[in-house]
Design goal:
single chain, alpha+beta, three-stranded antiparallel β-sheet
Length: about 160
């Protein structure tokens, strides 16, 4: 009795490992096109078998948008009103502004994929690598002093 339970347990473990390994291979085909942490958006694509013709593969795009419900219009100001409109343009999300080196004939040229790369991007959440501060009045000992407070202390102060 104990031996058969042990064999069933080992079989279940091996079967589970095989299913997990097959699942990981499917996920490995997915490519991340955009992961914009400022806009809380992620665009991925992968090829899947067509439902109409199983011998054909079609490209599927997955767009994941996380809407931060308590986001402020001005994320640096905790007293600003809560944001109620969120604008997502796929063409702006997929813009690649970082210059890349391209071999053109016998020369290496630096080129960008977009010519409209203004940094006036509206962020819907904090960039954890940027230090956000806010100046506010602080009443202490009968005097009002202005104090600057860090809204993202992890990125403003060193360890």
């Amino acid at each position: 009795m104990k031996t058969s339970l042990l064999l069933w347990g080992v079989l279940a473990v091996f079967l589970g490992a095989a299913l997990v390994a097959g699942y990981e291979d499917e996920e490995a085909e997915e490519h991340v096109l955009v992961d914009n942490k400022c806009k809380c958006a992620r665009v991925t694509s992968k090829f899947v078998r067509s439902k109409d013709n199983p011998e054909e593969e079609v490209l599927v795009r997955n767009i994941r948008v996380i809407v931060p419900l308590m986001s402020r219009k001005n994320i640096s100001d905790p007293t600003s009103p809560v944001r109620t409109t969120f604008v997502y343009r796929l063409s702006e999300l997929c813009k690649k502004c970082d210059p890349t080196e391209v071999e053109l004939g016998d020369r290496i040229v630096t080129a960008g994929q977009s010519n409209n790369c203004s940094s006036s991007d509206t962020c819907y959440t904090y960039d954890r690598n940027k230090c956000y501060t806010k100046t506010f009045p602080f009443f202490y000992d009968g005097k009002i002093n202005t104090v600057q407070a860090a809204l993202t202390p992890e990125s403003c102060y060193a360890d």
